[in-house]
Design a protein that fits this description.
Keywords: Carbohydrate metabolism, Cobalt, Isomerase, Manganese, Metal-binding, Zinc. This is Ribulose-phosphate 3-epimerase. Its cofactor is Mn(2+); Zn(2+); a divalent metal cation; Co(2+). GO terms for molecular function: D-ribulose-phosphate 3-epimerase activity; metal ion binding. The chain is of the alpha/beta class and about 260 residues long. It has a domain at about 45-105 and about 160-260: TIM Barrel. The chain has helices at about 5-10, 60-65, 90-100, 115-120, 140-145, 195-205, 225-230, 240, 245-260, and strands at about 45-50, 75-80, 105-110, 125-130, 150-155, 175-180, 210-215, 235. The protein has an 8-stranded parallel sheet with strand order 1-8-7-6-5-4-3-2. Helix 7 (about 225-230) links the parallel strand 7 (about 210-215) and strand 8. Helix 4 (about 115-120) runs parallel beside helix 5 (about 140-145) and helix 7 runs parallel beside helix 9 (about 245-260). The model is unreliable at about 1-10 and about 10-40 (pLDDT under 50). Bound molecules: D-xylitol-5-phosphate and zinc ion. Zinc ion binds next to strand 2.
């Protein structure tokens, strides 16, 4: 309980992660799409435009611009500590949840996600992703996100290996592999992450885990096929969508390329 030092020392009751809640329906109308890729099996290609590259003075309009073409709206929360940039927080997520029709895909690039992540789920996010490098109790936090009815995601920076997190797959709904160093939009895609995307897809397939594999950073019409071929199925794109004259058209073009590459 904020402001109550005693209450913060008390262990919260264990959340029941197994029970689906009505709020989980916020995750959107996204179902698996058969895909002929020999390695991928069945995946659904999803596009999550990042509002980091949108006009912050007109966020509701920017959300509406991709409402009929995208699957999610990616919301980059940065605290100027975990990353050297400051963006937005809970009040804007709450406001966007009311104003936008797409489910919110909140990517928390913040210190102490264990403390803050559940509040983003409570604020209406359909998916909440925390960074492995910042979380001190990732299992407890991921369970807490799920118990609030949101999908739980774990993000890894480019230099963070996937292998130490293999046992956490059952706790996850999504793995996010950063394809730039987090903090800013418009950076160059890091090809060095491609082998990790492949290894992660193999891990998910081998363990038959129901985990989406998201990539974020430098995803464009030029790079999305490489990511899809390597096994990604959820694609964040900021500048490639909101830097385009026609954001909805850009989403469609990205989706078409990813589906072609995966299928
Ligand atoms: C970067 C953010 C990304 C960013 C991507 O730290 O997590 O979501 O918006 O922007 P682009 O697609 O322009 O690289
Ligand atoms: Zn992001």
């Amino acid at each position: 309980m904020p402001g109550d030092g005693k209450a913060e020392l008390t262990e919260p009751p264990p959340p029941d992660a197994g029970e689906p809640t009505p709020a989980r329906a916020r995750s959107g109308p996204v179902g698996p799409v058969p895909c002929g890729h020999p390695k991928l099996g069945t995946v659904a290609i999803q596009i999550s435009p990042s509002i980091l590259s949108a006009d912050f003075a007109h966020l509701a309009d920017e959300a509406a611009a991709v409402a009929d073409s995208a699957d999610w709206l990616h919301v980059d929360v940065m605290d100027n500590h975990f990353v050297p940039n400051l963006t937005l927080g809970l009040p804007i997520v709450e406001a966007l949840h009311k104003a936008a029709t797409l489910p919110l895909d909140c990517h928390l690039m913040i210190e102490d996600p264990d403390r803050w992540a559940p509040a983003y789920a409570e604020a209406g996010a359909g998916s909440v992703t925390i960074h492995a490098e910042a979380a001190r109790a990732p299992v407890r936090t991921l369970r807490s996100i799920r118990s609030q009815g949101a999908r739980a995601g774990l993000a890894l920076n480019p230099a963070t290996p996937i292998e130490p997190y293999a046992e956490l797959l059952p706790e996850l709904d999504m793995l996010l592999l950063m394809t730039v160093e987090p903090g800013f939009g418009g950076q160059k895609f890091l090809d060095v992450v491609l082998p990790k995307i492949r290894r992660t897809r193999e891990l998910i397939r081998d363990r038959e885990a129901a985990v989406w594999l998201q990539v974020d950073g430098g995803v464009s019409e030029e790079t999305i096929e490489r990511c899809a071929e390597a096994g990604a199925d959820v694609f964040v794109a900021g500048s490639a969508v909101y830097g385009a004259q026609d954001p909805a058209g850009a989403v469609e073009a990205l989706r078409a390329r990813a589906e072609r590459a995966a299928g």
